Known about the structure:
- By secondary structure, the protein is mainly alpha-helical.
- The protein has a domain at about 1-230.
- It has helices at about 1-30, 40-55, 65-90, 100-120, 150-170, 175-185, 185-190, 195-220, 230-245, 250-275, 275-280, 285-290, 305-320, and strands at about 125, 135-140, 145-150, 225.
- It has a two-stranded antiparallel ribbon with strand order 1-4. Strands 2-3 form a two-stranded antiparallel sheet.
- Strand 2 (about 135-140) and strand 3 (about 145-150) form a beta hairpin.
Amino acid sequence: MDIFLQQIVNGLTLGCVYAVVALGYTMVYGIIQLINFAHGEVVMIGAMVAFTVITALAGSGAPPVIIVLAGITAAIPVCMATGYIVERTAYRPLRNAPRLAPLITAIGVSIVLQHVAMMIWGRNYISFPQIVQFTPYHITSNPNGATISNIQIVIILMSVAMMALLLGLVYKTRMGIAMRAVSQRPDVAGLMGVNINSVISFTFMIGAALGALAGVMVGSYYGIAHYQMGFLLGLKAFSAAVLGGIGNLGGAVLGGILMGLIESLGAGYMGDITNVCTLDKFLPGFQSLCEANPNSSFFGSNYKDVYAFIVLILVLVFRPQGLLGERTGDRA
């Protein structure tokens, strides 16, 4: 039970991060029907900028909370500017082009941002300075049982707060009404006085701000950053958005949390399930492998990155619209 609870805690932490990144994907898709594959690189830039500021202030004697807030404050405008520039220069000219053109452009922008980050911060992994003291809290009475750290608590609370603020923005403000109008009928929204270009740029910038915060959370959680860190993270978050229903904010949150739980539980239990000695009890022919290497397995925790894409394939095959999505035709 302790192992199960620990995997649930780890899965919720990962799932909240995936949900925040997936919200960036689903917002852009909901507005202009475009998969922004460069969003993962925006997350990476947020982590790198925050790392630079936190490292510069680490020896200043300032309180850790102030240092982390300074890193976040620096990362958000940089990522928002990146999102605006990408939308203005790479996506807006192709808004009415065939769908394959902006898709290829998005992949190209992703590669460009990776190499720009490599030229600025280098090829090597960068370690986040440990300015915040790691403090575990026991969930059960067993001193060796499941724990949740102060960093995990902050990540979960920040993610919930950002999701709530985004939902409030979309459903309770004039800009949110304009965003939903452009999403449903951009031609009619334009006739009603909505500046479509400004709304789309604002959507990219809000998604980039979420990406900046997600980058800081990922860097703080794992303790490292790299110029390629956003690629796999972005693909997993995109899979989460598809799982929940691309274009649906609630679906992105649900898909992200489910994706984190699937990855964490798979990493914790698939190794035992596919252990050669376990398989020997049900299938003939594994006895020699069990005797030679009893600890080997066919699908252990080192394959945890595969689970997200297995789920993506299954969703696309059996429910392409996602868990909370609805079947709709192409927008006129």
